[in-house]
Amino acid sequence: xxxxxxxxxxxxxxxxxxxxxxxxxxxxxxxxxxxxxxxxxxxxxxxxxxxxxxxxxxxxxxxxxxxxxxxxxxxxxxxxxxxxxxxxxxxxxxxxxxxxxxxxxxxxxxxxxxxxxxxxxxxxxxxxxxxxxxxxxxxxxxxxxxxxxxxxxxxxxxxxxxxxxxxxxxxxxxxxxxxxxxxxxxxxxxxxxxxxxxxxxxxxxxxxxxxxxxxxxxxxxxxxxxxxxxxxxxxxxxxxxxxxxxxxxxxxxxxxxxxxxxxxxxxxxxxxxxxxxxxxxxxxxxxxxxxxxxxxxxxxxxxxxxxxxxxxxxxxxxxxxxxxxxxxxxxxxxxxxxxxxxx
Length: 343
Fold this sequence. Notes:
Elements: H1 25-28, H2 30-40, H3 49-58, E1 63-66, H4 72-75, E2 79-84, H5 90-98, E3 104-110, H6 115-122, E4 135-140, H7 146-158, E5 174-178, H8 184-197, E6 213-219, H9 223-236, E7 237-241, E8 243-246, H10 261-265, E9 281-282, E10 291-298, H11 311-315, H12 331-341
Parallel strand pairs: 2-3, 2-5, 3-4, 5-6
Antiparallel strand pairs: 1-8, 6-10, 7-10, 8-9
Helix pairs in contact: 3-5, 8-9
């Protein structure tokens, strides 16, 4: 992946203004973003889908998410969370804050030249509030770079003597992706990294319930550009959208941000209609912007398929299903059609 992808030609972006998170506001507010954009380009901006993902990670008393970010199964093991393309680090910061009373590891990754921004923004979270709190690391990881990924794996294994027995046999429990699907030349490297992080040597357990869970927040910007990723991704991974509904009993919230998850996610959803009790809908489906929060897992049978080294072939489905033919998956297209039918 080219090192100048954070500075595309004619770059002209402004800071986002949607954060209501009191814990990270100072590090990620408009002025901080403005300075970061000048030095780090695209990586210095907090992109819209991050607010949805942070709301999902935090959870809300009056809203039920399905599936939830943290399940009872997760509570029984040590979490090891890796974020790809962390940018400013706002999502990794939320993970560390949300898990402040739990022993776990949060790894924020990006291009080597972006890591100084991550280190600066996440320095207050690098020291856990409790002795048993999270360990937050900043590490370089360019998409598709196996050497950098396996350096992280080696580091995790070297600290395994400090990890309790209930940590599970796999290196990672969660992989986080926030607003990473945009440039066509980055789609194949991103998919390649996801395949690497969800296969051997990162995965050693035969129990699929212990395999890493991938959580993706995604704002639709250009479907013709972005659909090749979803067509190929669905061949190797199963995925489903996060749903939400009002939790009974309904207790009105008079705070400035209200009790709705999408209102909390940002001002861009000011026209959001609160769901009726017991009515499920896709989280991110309201408002002018189409946002998805998706939970994915590797298809077990795909571990023996050959991943083609050519990016065009990878996005074309070559190697998936164990065959050299070109093919695609229609899961995401179906989600789009279901959303249109519900309007």
